[in-house]
Amino acid sequence: MNLQTISQKRKTFAQEILTEGESMLMRLKPSIKYDADGKEIKQVRKWYSNFRYKGEKIEVTLHSYQSQVKLANQNLWQLQKDLESGKVINGFNKSIKKLKPLKPFDKEHQALRDKHIIPFFGGYTPNELTPELIEKYMESKWGRDEPGNLQAMEGTWK
Fold first, then answer.
1. pLDDT, mean of residues 121-144
2. Nearest Cα to 75, choosing from 109, 99, 47?
3. What's the Cα-to-Cα distance from 157 to each of 14, 21, 95, 138, 152, rounded to whole Å?
4. Closest Cα to residue 69, out of 139, 142, 16, 141?
5. What is the pLDDT of residue 74?
6. What is the pLDDT of residue 28?
7. SS (H, E, C) 66-113
């Protein structure tokens, strides 16, 4: 098999994925590899997203193998829905207690993180944080007044 034939196979495959000028939203990784004789090397391939959203490249696994095209499309649709709803995608499947901040905390803020934030939110991922969960945290810390309004320290909303 010569290089032209390999190139034609790749081009045909890409055209099968694309429909009427749409950009490629997902792709298989790793790319197809051939040995010295031109035979395809068998390997496990997975679907990944492959597009830009608000200038940022979104290239994450779609948790499906090559034969699971329908599942890959469903996961791609869910990914796009999550992006539109404002969820952070790339690598935010870790729980909050396992995340490493870009800028280290000073001693005062590290103590707040260790004593207050991690015990309550530590098992959640950033995408799981909701206003209801934050309200529950505030209620557990400061409670509610007589009419049922949340109580908070004066500096909480600053």
1. 82
2. 47
3. 51, 48, 25, 11, 8
4. 16
5. 92
6. 86
7. CCCHHHHHHHHHHHHHHHHCCCCCCCCCCCHHHCCCCCCCCHHHHHHH
Structure tokens at 21: 């000028």
Q: Is the pLDDT of residue 158 over 60?
A: no
Written as one letter, the residue type at 47 is W
pLDDT band at 19 (very low <50, low <70, confident <90, very high): very low
- Predicted confidence at residue 68, as pLDDT, reads 92
**CA distances for 100 relative to 32, 58, 93, 103, angstroms:** 35, 21, 13, 9
Percentage of the chain with pLDDT > 70? 72
Query: Amino acid letter at 155?
Result: G
Query: What does the block give as tokens for 120?
Result: 């309550």
Q: What pLDDT sits at residue 59? A: 86
Q: How many CB atoms lie within 10 A of CB 135?
A: 11
Domain borders along the chain are: 3-84, 96-157
